[in-house]
Automatic annotation (TrEMBL):
Gene Ontology cellular component list: cytoplasm; preribosome, small subunit precursor
Record InterPro entries: NOB1, PIN-like_dom_sf, Ribonuclease_PIN
Keywords assigned by UniProt, alphabetized: Hydrolase, Metal-binding, Nuclease, Toxin-antitoxin system
Molecular-function GO term, any one: RNA endonuclease activity
Keyword flag Hydrolase: yes
GO biological process: maturation of SSU-rRNA
Gene3D superfamilies per the UniProt record, alphabetical: 5'-nuclease
One Pfam family per UniProt: PIN_6
Ranges for domain Ribonuclease PIN: 5-91
Keyword Metal-binding: yes
Family: Belongs to the NOB1 family.
Name of this protein: Endoribonuclease Nob1
Organism of provenance: Candidatus Nitrosopumilus salarius BD31
Length: 168
């Protein structure tokens, strides 16, 4: 069965309106986008014809999505809607349609299928770390270096070898 799991950017790009594939989303994403084409009730038509299905991911999938996003360092960039889409993809083993780089990084780290809409998508997958440009230390989180007070910057550690010493 061909189906896609859509985040808000997929709706804004019109994906479900020009596709014959079944589409899934979560109620939190639907609440975010339900104003789209309201005058023509396009979303209502998709729901009535069963081409758009609203489904909530199970608790275990949500926990797995949160853990994966924390492992990659993307968690602070993700909304609850984003987490719900990743969790639904984990549960259903579908294909996420999104242009969100944080969603894509988490999904690719989980070996989930993800397709971009209006961008080329991401090429580099990895783990985000925070680093101090002043004292050259790496940290798992924070905005300011606990050692010297310099504002931390973020960088993506590419690939699977993520054995960089990190400070809390």
């Amino acid at each position: 069965m061909d189906f896609r799991i859509l985040d808000a950017s997929a709706f804004y790009a019109g994906v479900p309106f020009r596709s014959s594939d079944d589409c899934y989303t979560t109620s939190s994403v639907y609440d975010e986008i339900k104003h789209i084409k309201k005058n023509h009730d396009a979303l209502g038509t998709l729901l009535e014809t069963n081409r758009l299905k609203i489904r909530e991911p199970d608790k275990d999938s949500i926990i797995a999505a949160i853990k994966a996003s924390k492992d990659t360092g993307d968690f602070p960039q993700l909304s609850k809607q984003d987490i719900s889409i990743i969790a639904l993809c984990i549960e259903m083993n579908g294909e996420i349609i999104s242009d969100d780089f944080a969603i894509a990084n988490v999904a690719k780290n989980l070996c989930l299928k993800i397709s971009p809409i209006m961008t080329q998508g991401i090429e580099d997958v990895g783990k985000w770390i925070h680093y101090c440009p002043g004292c050259r230390t790496n940290h798992t989180k924070g905005k300011e270096c606990p050692m010297c007070g310099t504002l931390l910057k973020r960088k993506l550690l590419k690939g699977e070898s993520l054995s960089v010493p990190l400070n809390e």
